[in-house]
Amino acid sequence: MYAPGSDSALTALEHAVALPDAFSKEEYVRALRRNQHDVTKAALQLKAKHSWLKSNQLDNLGLGKPSLQREVKKQYLQLLHDATDKCKCPVVLFSVAKFHPTQSSDMLIPGREQCTDHGAPTDNTTSNIEDARRLVVYMVTLAIEAMEVEEAPGIVYLIDMEGVSTNLITEGSVHLEFLRMLKEHFPETVQFCFVLNYSASVWVQQATTYLLKTLGVSERTQQKIKFVKDLRELQHYFNAPALPEKFGGLYKLMRAQQWMEIQAEIEEVDLENLPAEEETTYMTKQARELNGMQYAACSVNEVVEMNTTVLRGAVWRKKSGMSWVKMYVVLRPDALLLYEDIKGKMPMVIIPVTYQSAIVAAHFDNAPKGTFGFRFDVEGVPGGHLLAANSEIERGNWLQDIQMAIQSFQEQHAREVYEEERKFRMDQEFEKLNMIDFSTELPAVPPPKSPPAPAPIPTAIHGAFAPPQPSIPTNAPPVQPFMMNPMQNMTNPQSMTMGMPQMPLQYPQGMPMQQPMGSNPYMAAPMQPGMYPQQQQPQFPRPMYPPNPGMQQPYPPNSRTF
């Protein structure tokens, strides 16, 4: 046994639970305090709580879930924003008269769309036990988080009994179940519980005492429950701005939508643009072609959380021969999912809803007594699926909503067929006109590759392909290089052609042009038969001064004129 409040006990409990990030440090401390610092018992209780949250899918609750939004709008349970008692304890208001739980899960519960009863909307104030449990866990979890942030000693509950009948207390099996849940999984969190607006008769206190004894609540916890006859007694625990107006304070209770907007901002959830997972995962065109098999791994809670879930409730199904079995059924827009019970992890039977399906009312002689049958005809199942509802009203609801789903698929199939035919006609018209269909996106043509760089030509081969050089006649005298006298040019006024257009240099007829200097001073020697051209070494011309611009160069002195 560890000493109270010792760090060694807390460390030992964390290692015994071995669930990182599953519980806060404050919850470990509360578990030790509840079990008189017995690490083994505290670890077993925390593990049991974690398993319970996981199995009921209560471990990751948020305002983005449609079922929570529906329950919050009923306003029977609400955490008061920005309101605490004098000890900084968060305040939770429970309006008992607004809470109408169903004693059985057999009733049809509206999903995102209200169930219709031959055109009349069903009362949407009733709550299924699973939905109510989800809201209670969500609100208590929010209150515990606020309590830990403020380091408060607990949570203060205001239980408003106004308008409560006697039958609600005497038949409070649902309330008893929720109290047992709070005692088992959320211990050491109650600071005070104020019962308000109850009748002066003693039956309310007696019924409450009976419930607490049934739960085995300790004397210390019972002392925290206070029956308030005069609302002015609350002024000892609350400041006026934190106490609701109907109880003598100044706090204005929020409407459901206003409360959801504030909480959504805290959780960073966009209520107007919530991502519809079922639309992107389960209701695409490819998914609908699976005929409902996309829901093969979905539990009841998962499909209930989807926005487009239509109906859910208990229905009888003829299994084989004379045997009828009661199942929990969830209607999706594209499939009817039949589970073993309301806690089913995967559907036992999946009936696809397609444009070829049909639903009709029917009577079965061997059906369970007091039920009303209907037949669901699908392709590939001779005789269809034989089902029976618990009442004629429920059968009408199933027939109406399933028929609406079938009609929706028929309209969608008609649109798809029309689009395919229209596209086929357009293709035929293009073929008749022999035109190019520019609507078809052609593949991108890669740019042409640049040609490879040419290989260098060897020097020997380069010399063989050199252009022939002009030859000088053998009888022509050698040409002497002519040197210009710059002084003569300067003194001869006729040779001064500066600024005048220069005439081209002319040669006598039959006189070959003098090879310009610097091109190739060597002439190609005549080759004898059988000889190969010799490789010549490159010769670099000697530098020469450029001629004087504007000067007309005279003929060489030894040149012959005709």
Give me a quick take on this structure.
With 562 residues, the chain is α/β, with parallel strands linked by helices. It is 32% helix and 15% strand. The longest helix has 42 residues, at 392-433.
Short key terms for the protein model shown above:
562 residues; alpha/beta; Phosphatidylinositol Transfer Protein Sec14p; PH-domain like; seven-stranded antiparallel β-sheet; five-stranded mixed β-sheet; 32% helix; extended; CRAL-TRIO_dom_sf
List the helices and strands and how they pair.
Blueprint: H1 7-17, H2 25-34, H3 39-55, H4 66-72, E1 77-84, E2 90-95, E3 100-101, E4 116-117, E5 120-121, E6 126-127, H5 129-150, E7 155-160, H6 166-170, H7 173-185, E8 190-196, H8 203-215, H9 219-222, E9 225-227, H10 256-267, H11 277-281, H12 285-288, H13 300-304, E10 311-320, E11 323-332, E12 335-339, E13 349-352, E14 358-361, E15 372-377, E16 385-389, H14 392-433, H15 459-464, H16 486-491
Parallel strand pairs: 2-7, 3-6, 7-8, 8-9
Antiparallel strand pairs: 1-2, 4-5, 10-11, 10-16, 11-12, 12-13, 14-15, 15-16
Helix pairs in contact: 1-2, 1-3, 2-3, 4-5
GO molecular function: phosphatidylinositol transfer activity
Domain PH: 308-407
Protein name: PH domain-containing protein
